[in-house]
Design goal:
Layout (H helix, E strand, L loop, with lengths): L4 H12 L7 H29 L3 H8 L5 H8 L4 H11 L9 H30 L3 H14 L4 H28 L2 H13 L8 H32 L3 H21 L7 H39 L4 H12 L8 H45 L1
Helix pairs in contact: 1-2, 2-3, 2-4, 2-6, 3-6, 6-7, 7-8, 8-9, 8-10, 9-10, 10-11, 10-12, 11-12, 12-13, 12-14
Amino acid sequence: MLPYRKTVEEIQAYLNSPDQSQDEKVRELAGRYATACRELNDRLRGCQQMIEQGFRSQALKLAEVEPNLLDTAALLDFTERDEWEELAASYGWDRAYGLKLEAADLVNQAYEIEETLKPLMRQHRRFALSRAPLKQRIEVLRKIAERDTLAPCWKQDLRELELARLNRLAELGRTAVAQSDRALMEGIVSEWAETPWSAPVPRAIATKLEPVFVTLAINHLLPECTDDLVAVRTTADVAACQHVLRDWRQLVERIQRSRSNWQPNEKVSATIDKIANWIQQQTRLATKLANYQQAVFELEVAVQQRRPLHEIQQLEAAVHSFGRGSLPPQTEELVRQYRQQRIWYAVSEAGMAILALIVGVVFLVFLIRSFTKS
């Protein structure tokens, strides 16, 4: 039984009693409750500070010292506590002035984190004792550091292991280059580039690793990329050629950042230039075709909107400016029909004008004769 349970029960009984007069016994009860709350707050504050400093496990051990911290907080934070505090204030009794419940929440969260970390912690200890490969230990420690963000020790330990692993990669890199071991070089470059290191790779180590990539790229990656580009060119797939050419150029730029004087051999450069020129030519043709199709589309829209003939002629001239001969059959038929309609409308309008003139002349003659007779 918690030592403060009797105090809380007496307070609740007093609050539920019709007689709430003050006496020395009740004043002493208020003092006991206030003291219990202050002691609890001191413990909560201490645990909170330890958790925030990264000593979560130690904080939880202190929280479990009897009386249990969270159980005590739940007991002292009874339902009628606000009512009791108001009554104590009105009678001038000793008061606790609130509980640090946010610290209790933090302790509770620490328990949850500790529970989720148990499997990883067991694996971490097992790897450390068995001196498992650094790569495996780093993977586990990274997961721990991601979940336990309040403990700076994990990040420090992770960085130490990462630096040890990077130095090991640099050593392996020298061996791989000396032995022209492609598989080993690919593994080193992949781990170096794809691992989410907790901090940037130190320049001194990166300088040692760079020759591994350069050797791999010059001897293997670039020749393969060149062969791929030549193969894709035979399919006349412009988009695929552009993609492979972009990869090829990125490889060359990366190599030249380490070896500024390095250049592909003349035969390879000539092949690449020839393919690049073909891509540019095809791109220009595709752009010209797209512009031509847009001009045809604008002409057809103008015909459908029954725009004036001079605008139609201008748009038609724009289409012919691409040098593709006559208009597409469907477009040419639309233009021909539209012109015939415009001519028929023009003739009709002229006939109506002549008819109106004749009627006007006849009417005028009629008026003159009528005036003469009168």
